[in-house]
Amino acid sequence: MAAYILRRLLLMIPTLLGIMVINFTLVQFVPGGPVEQIIAQLEGGGDVFEGISGGGSEIAEGGEGYAGARGLPQDFIEELERQFGFDKPPLERFLDMMWNYLRFDFGESYFRSISVVDLVLEKMPVSITLGLWSTLLAYLISIPLGIRKAVRDGSSFDTWTSGIVIVAYAIPGFLFAILLLVMFAGGSFLQIFPLRGLTSDNWEQLNAGQKVLDYLWHIALPVTASTISAFAGLTLLTKNSFLDEIRKQYVTTAKAKGLSEARVLYGHVFRNAMLIVISGFPALFVSVFFGGSLIIETIFSLDGLGRLGFEAAVSRDYPVMFGTLYAFALIGLVMGLITDLTYIWIDPRIDFESRET
User: Fold this and answer.
1) How far apart are CA 289 and CA 143, in angstroms?
2) What is the dihedral of CA 329, 115, 74, 26, to 10 degrees?
3) Cα four-point dihedral sign 129, 130, 134, 137
4) How does pLDDT run across 143-167, given as a tens digit for each residue?
């Protein structure tokens, strides 16, 4: 097992490097870098993309390198380039960046005067809330429901719950979030839940019990909205996995020996059927934790990692973009390794050590 873990860890190096190379290369061809952002603001042009879309031909004819640069001294623009490190060739910038990232030095945000690590830690509570609670609820609901649907396959219970699951799967999370806002957060119907934030303004004055209730009160709607799609897909996955195992010969043999249905289901089928369900855990957790929360955070006015990544991409805040990409990609790869180790914990018969590399 130690050799397998070592191979997986070594494989992470080229995988992570490939992710960074592809994204860094793509960024070199995208107009509107941080220098252009600053120049556009100094020139009073607003967002740099307005200059790119509306004045691209004028810039090309004038030969200027940046939108809005016509009214600024060239030495000032060169100084900006030096401050951001754009006076160096792309390859040198990439190598410097990767050397710093290997030491977990992610630098400082271009526009916020705060280190990337501190900025991520500042936004982390929102993403932890959405990712952790949404994933936990999805599994707590989907696994028992999926098992029940598999046991009663074809029954009326299976039919009407399948209808609910399919509808839940078909509704986009953001649409469900808007529906929740309209119905329960001061829209056209009830005003039961708050519209924004994780806590109330008087959070510091609340006692421990009131803080817990206040926290749950604020996260109820966003967590529900982010759970709906994951719950639906995971329920169907659990049902199909258990159906496949229930129809195998060893289940028939176990029942013939007089074992109860519960003993067969949870003592034999559960361990085998749960392998495919667990295999989807890293993808589900990482997608909700890092990527799937952008729209939910925007709708519920939550300042988390989803909005941070989006704002960094729009403003071309490269340290935040690449720093978070590197960290999250590394976490995703480690989660994949943890999943394999969980396989062995559930079913010791699995031996990754004997697999060919």
Assistant:
1) 20
2) 10
3) positive
4) 889 888 888 888 889 899 888 888 8
